[in-house]
Structures are given as C-alpha cells and as structure tokens.
Design a protein that fits this description.
Shape: globular
Number of strands: 27
Radius of gyration: 24 Å
Low-confidence stretches: none
Strand order of the largest sheet: 17-20-21-15-14-23-24
Mean pLDDT: 96
Oligomer: single chain
Length: about 500
C-alpha cells in the first residue's frame, strides 16, 4: 500500500499577488483581468497573476527590441554581463527557499525536490556566466597574402522564451541565462499555472543590475500572449519547452518570419534491462524514473523494456519498492510524489490506465486516483503485459505510470525503443559494457544513461531526436545557440583581380 501524507490546513496559505514586468517596471495588464492559481495539493488559491493581453505582449517585445538595439546589454563586455549573472546566481541562492515554496505550492511538486531543483538552477546560472566570458569567433590567416578572414559571433537579438508548468524555475534557468550571456534581450512567458517563481526572478535580475527592458515577463495564456511572441517580426528567436503538439504550432508560427526556433518537447523514454543488470540499483532507478515529479516530466522513464527471463521478478520487486513511496502533501519534506497539476490532467492519466487495462494490460500496482481530502493525487502505477502498439506504450501519459514491455534479443529491444515518435532520452542496464555501448549507439535519443537514470550536469547538452525537439540546451555550446555568425572577409592592399577590363 502506498504511504499517504495528508495535506495541511487551508488557513496556512496566503494569496500572493503579482504584476507584469515590462521595460523595468511592474505594471498591471491592459485588460484588467487576473488569473487565480489554486495549489494542486491543497485546493486553495495561492497566487494571483495579471492576465496579459496581446497588447501587453507587444509592449514587452517593443521594450526588449529597444533595449537590444540601443546596446545597453549587448554592447557590454562579456565580463560585465558575467558579473551581473553571477550576482543573480547569488541572489537566487539567497531566495531559494522562497522560490522553492512557490514552485511547490503552484505545481504540486514535493518541497524537497523543489529545493534540489533550485540548487541545480543556481549552478546553471553560474555556468552560463562563465560561458559568457568564453564566447568567441574564428580567424583564418590561411587564405593567402591578400586576404584575412574573421568570423564574429553576435547576439541573435530579441528572444521569446516560453516555459512549461512542470519545472517552473529550472527550465527558465536552462534558457534565460544563456541568452543573456550571449547579449540577447528577452520576453519570458511562464505557464499561467506556475508563474510565481519566474516573476520573483524578475525582481532578482533587476536587483542584480540587468538594465530595464532586457528581461520582460508577461503572464497569461498561450493563445493571448504566447502566440504573439512567436509571430512578431521584432522577435528574432523562440525558445520553447512544452508539449510536442504546441511545439509544432510554435514552429509553424515562427516560420511566418523565419525565426530561429529551439524546441524541447515530449518524451516516452525507455529503460532497457538485461538479465545481467545490477537489479538492486535498477529497481530504485526505475521507481525514481517513473514517479519523479509525479511522472510529469518529459524525461520520465515511463517505458520499461525488460528481458523476458527476468520480467516477472522485476515487476514484483518494483511493485514492492513502489509501495514504500510516500504520496501526499507537497509541503511535507517526506513526500516523494506530490499532486497532479490539474483535475483535468488527473482524469487524462486515469483514462490512459483504464484504457490499457481494458486492452489487456495488467495493473500490477496502484492504478487509481487517490482521495486525500483536497487537491488531486494519483497512485504510483505499474502496468505489465503492455504491448508496443498500446497508446500507453507510445504516447506521453505525463503521470506516475510505468509501462512494462518485454524483449528477448538486443535487436528486439532496440526496435521497440526506436518504434515511437519520441527520442528524448533512454537508459540501459547491464554489467556488459559492450551491451551498454551498443544500445547507446543504436537507440535514437539525445541522452543515453548507462547503469543510472536521470542524472544531469550543467556541462552536458540536453535535447531530443525526432519529435522530442530541435536543438540542445546546456553544455558548452549553449550560449552559441543564441548567436548569429558574421563573416568579415578582408582584402589587404590593392585588389589585383580585374573582372572587366
């Protein structure tokens, strides 16, 4: 039986009010409307945002355009920008408890997880600051006595940054500091469900010394605010994280003005397990990979592809381990699985489980929503006897649901892993390095974990193959993604070639 942690009393919460950040000032939206956010783990309003309009988005874009064109940020030295980003990192660290609390109550993620994410975000801001000082071009002194070639890197310009609800502060931190390090200006739209920590980031950046207009933050819906940010001619690049469906719409919108687009989208990530795997380590990694962030994670290890010889044993051991997972109040430090983001999403997750069971899958653990008195929760769920053509094996459930499939040969395992539209990440478990490396080379995914799962570092690029996205975040080239290259082809002395004499 899953251990339940009851939510705390409603009187413990106070509603926090937020405004928009446009051109260095906190302002109300032009439409006069607001968005109330209920805590998914407690069922009570905890935040109230401005419901920005298209006009507000256009004001923010205009501010970012002016700031870029006047060079208040882009013409600073790399060292000057780096110092401001380092100051921002320290201020984020100083306010990490506040930021983690906001992410916890707005998204439903456990508070201990939210605090760990803030630690990772601080490291990313420091890493981006370092990369900003190392951004450089190329020179070619090999083109002959009369020619010198220089390739410059310049900030691409105004960047629209659109982030999802599942990792509110962490994902904006995978984008914004690298754009700023390159010298870009930005308009940021967080999810209307989890905008609080991003708006506090706006306060932090102004305190750190980021000039007015360089970072603008608008809250509201995708249709009203996000769409203008992807089509406006004064925007030079769009960086979007979210569903594959909305990513396709974003790409289509950006195509109208041929903007550069970076997309980090969905995943249906396999863990492939061979009979010689260290099962004790794997079992915990499987539970973590499936239930981390309540499975509302593009990187979730939601597909377990296990060798048929050990499948029954593995399912039984994962079920026993799943029974130890504490589910409930996101603010309780002992909670491992918090609340589901909305009632509608909980119903969607439950629908996938019901349909899989009807189609012949076995519910080996969990399998139903949990009634804890307030908020919405889903029991950690294991579906065994899943077939590769089932929706639950091919589509992104985005909940704490693990689908177990079986294989007999390495080639079959690779074929199952590669048989879907996604290719974000994968894991392989075997004591045989040749097996791990073969899987690593043949599975089409942006990250392959070997005998571990969902580890990460600021130095390692992140992104997907196929319909899991375009481009990469993090890593030493992350700042370069927010730049254009410009060739200076310089002739020395008199030009000797005469075309028409």
């Amino acid at each position: 039986m899953t251990i339940l942690v009851r939510p705390r009393a409603l009187e413990d919460f106070k509603v926090r009010e937020f405004q928009l950040l446009i051109d260095g000032r906190w302002v109300d939206g032009s439409g006069g409307a607001s968005i109330e956010r209920k805590s998914p783990g407690h069922g009570v309003v905890v935040s109230r945002y401005q419901a920005a309009t298209k006009a507000d988005a256009e004001r923010a874009i205009a501010a970012a355009r002016r700031a870029f064109d006047t060079g208040t940020w882009s013409r600073m030295t790399g060292a000057e920008r780096s110092n401001i980003l380092l100051k921002a990192a320290e201020l984020i660290a100083a306010r990490s408890d506040e930021l983690a609390y906001l992410d916890c109550i707005e998204s439903g993620k456990p508070i201990s997880q939210a605090k760990a994410e803030l630690g990772g975000a601080v490291d990313i801001w420091r890493y981006a600051a370092a990369l900003g000082r190392d951004l450089h071009g190329e020179s070619y002194n090999t083109l002959g006595e009369g020619t010198l070639g220089v390739v410059l890197r310049e900030a691409i310009g105004v960047v629209s940054i659109i982030t999802p609800w599942n990792f509110p502060f962490l994902i904006v931190s995978q984008k914004l500091p690298f754009a700023l390090a390159a010298g870009c200006t930005a308009v940021v739209k967080p999810s209307e469900l989890t905008s609080g920590s991003t708006l506090v980031l706006g306060e932090i950046l102004m305190e750190a010394g980021v000039p007015a207009g360089v970072v603008n933050i608008v809250t509201g819906t995708g249709a009203e605010v996000g769409a203008p940010m992807t089509v406006h001619p004064d925007v030079d690049m769009v960086s979007f994280t979210g569903s594959t469906l909305v990513g396709k719409l974003t790409m289509a919108n950006a195509a109208q003005t041929l903007k550069k687009v970076s997309l980090e989208l969905g995943g249906k990530n396999p863990q492939i397990v061979f009979p010689d795997a260290e099962l004790h380590d794997f079992i915990d990694a499987a539970v973590f990979g499936a239930y981390f962030n309540a499975g509302e994670c593009c990187n979730a290890g939601s597909r377990l592809i296990v060798h048929r010889d050990i499948a029954d044993d593995v399912v039984a051991r994962i079920a026993a381990h799943s029974a130890k997972v504490k589910v409930g109040d996101p603010l309780d430090p002992q909670t491992k699985v918090g609340a589901i983001i909305t009632p509608e999403h909980l119903a969607k997750i439950d629908g996938y489980v019901r349909n899989a069971a009807t189609g012949g899958a076995n519910i080996s653990h969990g399998g139903e929503p949990l009634e804890l008195g307030m908020g919405q929760f889903m029991s950690p769920t294991i579906l065994s006897a899943v077939q590769p053509d089932m929706a639950v094996a091919r589509e992104e459930v985005f909940g704490p649901v693990l689908s177990v499939l079986t294989f007999e040969t390495l080639d079959e395992a690779v074929r199952i892993a590669n048989s879907i539209d996604y290719g974000l990440s994968a894991g392989v478990w075997s004591r045989d390095f040749d097996t791990c490396l073969t899987i690593g080379r043949q599975v089409r995914a942006g990250t392959i974990w070997m005998n571990t799962f969902m580890d990460g570092a600021s130095e390692l690029p992140f992104g997907g193959y196929k319909q899991s996205g375009l481009g990469r975040e993090l890593g030493r080239h992350a700042v370069e993604d927010y730049t254009e290259t410009k060739t200076l082809n310089m002739h020395l002395g008199r030009r000797k070639v005469v075309w028409a004499s």
